[in-house]
From TrEMBL:
Pfam families attached to this UniProt entry: LON_substr_bdg
Chain intervals for the UniProt region annotation (Disordered): 55-87
Keywords: Coiled coil, Signal
Coiled coil: 511-538
Annotated source species: Seminavis robusta
Lineage per the UniProt record: Eukaryota, Sar, Stramenopiles, Ochrophyta, Bacillariophyta
Limits of the Lon N-terminal domain: 151-278
Protein's UniProt name: Lon N-terminal domain-containing protein
Biased composition (Acidic residues): 59-71
Length: 539
C-alpha cells in the first residue's frame, strides 16, 4: 500500500502546483506543472474541467444534437441567436440586481430601525470579535485559513444566498461550516445549529468554521454562479438566527492563542488602569483578541492576493492563497514613524473600545506565556520534515534518470525563512537542506519574469519577506501561522501511517494555537518519513 501511495505522491497527482526537479538541482527554466483538471468544490462535489463550464462552445456532436432539438422545440428560447440570448441574459441579470439591491436596502432599513444588524452581509464592530448575521455555507468539506477555492454554485438556496451577499457592499463575507452530506442535512434536526447553551450533546452540528471572502464572481448563462473565495479567520458559531433556506448565525472570530498573547499583557494593564470593575482576565483576553484581529486586518491586503474568475482559465486559481507583491508596502508595513505610530494607536483604540463596549471572552484552557522560541523551533522542525520527505521521494524514484515531481506548492515555498527559524539572524540551513535552493532559484526567476512564475500564469512567486529591510517587517508569528495551515496540503490525502490516526481538516481547524498545529504536522511528517525510510531500506 505504501508503494502505491508513493507512486501516486511522486507522480504529482495530488492536484497541486508543483516544481519539477532533477537530482535536486532546479533547472534554469524551473518548469511548473499544473494539473489540467482543477477541483471545483460545490454542493455536487468532485472535479470538473474549468474550461468545460466556463466556455460557451460545445463539441461538434453536441452541435448536431442541438440542431435536431431546435427543429423539434417549441421553446422560443431554443431558437435564439447568440446575440439575442446575450441580450436576454443581460436583462435577466439587471432584474436580479434590482431585486437583491432592494432586498439589501429593506434589510438595512429594518436594521437601522431596530438598532440591530439584520443585513446578510457580515459587518463587525471595529472593537469587537463578534460578527452578526453571517450567512453560512454548510457543505461536506472543511476549508482552512490561507486556502482559496473556485466554487461552482447551482443549488437554488445557495445561489440566492450568494446573490444577496454580492448585492451588498464589499467585503463580501460568508461563513464556511462543515456539514456531513451538505444540503441533504440542512433540515435534519440532528445537525441543527443550536445556541451555545443548548448545544451540549443535543446535536451533531459542527460549530467551528472559517470566515470567507468572495474575491470575484461570474454568473453563467445557465444561472450557475462561479466564485473565487478565500478563507480568512477561524470562528465559533454562537447562535443561529436563521436555519432555512440557508443558515445565518452570529459568530465569534477566534485568533490563534499566540497572536492574542502578543497583546494580552498590554490589555491587562489597560484594564487595570481604566477601571476596577473589569473582569481583568476575561476582559483583557477579549481586548487582546480584538487587537490581534485588527492587526490581521491591516495585513490582509498583503496576505491575500486578489484573484479573478477569468484567471481560472489560465490556471491562476491555486489551492493556496498567494501574497500580493503589487501591494503598497509602505501602507501595510510603514517605515514612516508617524504612519507606524498611527497603526499602533489604532490597535490600542480597538483594545480600549472592546473593554468598554464588548462582552468578556473566556480564556482558552491551559493558557501559557507566549514562547516565540518554541514556535520557531517547531516551524524549523516542520521544514526539515518537508525537506526529508522530498529527499526520500527522490531516493525512491524508480527511474533516477527521469525527473521527479515534488508536490510542494510555490505559495508554501514562499514561507520558507532564509535562515534558521529560531533566530532573528540569517543562519544557514543544514548542508544537505534542499528546499532553500528551490525557493532561492524561484525568487531569482521571479525577479526576471514576475508575471509567469508561481502556479502557471498571473500568480507570481512571492517570498514572505520580499519587502526586506532590517526591521523584518512581516511578523514571524503570521508566517508560522500560515505554514501551520498550508503544510497539511501535502498530507491530507494520505491514510493512516503506523499507529498514527489520520488528522482531518476539521481537526486542524479546531486547534486553537499555532504551536499545536505545527507540532501535529511535525509528528505526521515524522511518521510518513519513517514509513518511506523503511521502504527505502528494503530496496
Amino acid at each position: 500500500m505504501m508503494r502505491a501511495w508513493l507512486i501516486l505522491f511522486a507522480s504529482g497527482l495530488l492536484g497541486l502546483p508543483t516544481i519539477t526537479v532533477r537530482g535536486f538541482s532546479p533547472s534554469p527554466t524551473l518548469p511548473i506543472k499544473l494539473p489540467t483538471i482543477l477541483p471545483v468544490n460545490g454542493v455536487i462535489g468532485g472535479s470538473i474541467r474549468i474550461s468545460s463550464f466556463l466556455a460557451s462552445s460545445r463539441d461538434d456532436d453536441d452541435d448536431d444534437e442541438e440542431e435536431e432539438d431546435k427543429e423539434e422545440s417549441i421553446n422560443p428560447n431554443d431558437l435564439e441567436t447568440p446575440d439575442e440570448r446575450r441580450n436576454r441574459m443581460d436583462n435577466v441579470r439587471k432584474i436580479q440586481k434590482s431585486f437583491y439591491r432592494q432586498l439589501q436596502n429593506q434589510q438595512q432599513a429594518e436594521g437601522s430601525s431596530t438598532n440591530d444588524r439584520t443585513t446578510t452581509t457580515a459587518i463587525s464592530d471595529s472593537c469587537n470579535t463578534i460578527l452578526k448575521n453571517v450567512p453560512l455555507w454548510r457543505v461536506q468539506w472543511t476549508e482552512l485559513p490561507g486556502y482559496q477555492n473556485l466554487l461552482n454554485c447551482h443549488v437554488a438556496h445557495y445561489t440566492h444566498m450568494f446573490h444577496t451577499i454580492l448585492a451588498g457592499p464589499k467585503p463580501w463575507y460568508f461563513g464556511h461550516v462543515f456539514l456531513p452530506g451538505g444540503s441533504e442535512n440542512l433540515d435534519n434536526p440532528d445537525y441543527q445549529l443550536l445556541s451555545s447553551e443548548e448545544s451540549n450533546n443535543k446535536t451533531k452540528a459542527t460549530y467551528t468554521g472559517v470566515l470567507m471572502q468572495v474575491a470575484d464572481s461570474r454568473q453563467l448563462e445557465d444561472g450557475r454562479l462561479v466564485l473565487v473565495v478565500q478563507a480568512l479567520e477561524r470562528f465559533q458559531v454562537i447562535e443561529a438566527t436563521q436555519h432555512t433556506p440557508y443558515a445565518v448565525a452570529t459568530v465569534q472570530l477566534c485568533p490563534d492563542t499566540e497572536l492574542a498573547m502578543t497583546y494580552y499583557d498590554k490589555a491587562q494593564s489597560m484594564a487595570r488602569e481604566l477601571s476596577d470593575d473589569f473582569l481583568h482576565d476575561q476582559d483583557a483576553w477579549g481586548a487582546a483578541c480584538a487587537a490581534a484581529l485588527e492587526a490581521a486586518e491591516q495585513l490582509r491586503q498583503f496576505e491575500y492576493r486578489p484573484v479573478l474568475v477569468q484567471s481560472s482559465t489560465m490556471g491562476a486559481v491555486a489551492p493556496l492563497v498567494n501574497y500580493d507583491m503589487d501591494v503598497d508596502v509602505e501602507t501595510v508595513f510603514p517605515l514612516d514613524m508617524d504612519r507606524a505610530q498611527a497603526q499602533k494607536e489604532r490597535v490600542g483604540t480597538v483594545m480600549e473600545k472592546h473593554l468598554f463596549s464588548a462582552s468578556p471572552v473566556d480564556l482558552p484552557d491551559n493558557l501559557k506565556q507566549l514562547d516565540l522560541e518554541q514556535v520557531g523551533q517547531l516551524e524549523h522542525e516542520v521544514w526539515l520534515g518537508v525537506d526529508e520527505l522530498v529527499k526520500l521521494l527522490y531516493q525512491l524514484n524508480p527511474n533516477p534518470t527521469s525527473p521527479i515531481v515534488t508536490p510542494v506548492p510555490t505559495q508554501m515555498l514562499g514561507l520558507l525563512p532564509r535562515g534558521d527559524c529560531c533566530s532573528q539572524q540569517y543562519i544557514p540551513w543544514p548542508g544537505d537542506f534542499k528546499l532553500d535552493q528551490f525557493a532561492n532559484r524561484l525568487e531569482d526567476y521571479a525577479a526576471a519574469m514576475p508575471p509567469t512564475v508561481g502556479t502557471y500564469s498571473k500568480s507570481p512567486f512571492v517570498r514572505y519577506d520580499y519587502a526586506d529591510n532590517p526591521l523584518k517587517r512581516y511578523p514571524i508569528l503570521r508566517r508560522a501561522q500560515r505554514l501551520s495551515f498550508v503544510v497539511w496540503i501535502l498530507m491530507e490525502n494520505i491514510g493512516p501511517v503506523g499507529n498514527q490516526p489520520v488528522v482531518s481538516r476539521q481537526d486542524i481547524l479546531e486547534m486553537h494555537s499555532i504551536s499545536e498545529r505545527l507540532e501535529a504536522a511535525r509528528d505526521r511528517l515524522k511518521a510518513i518519513n519513517a514509513s518511506l525510510r523503511r521502504v527505502a531500506d528494503q530496496q
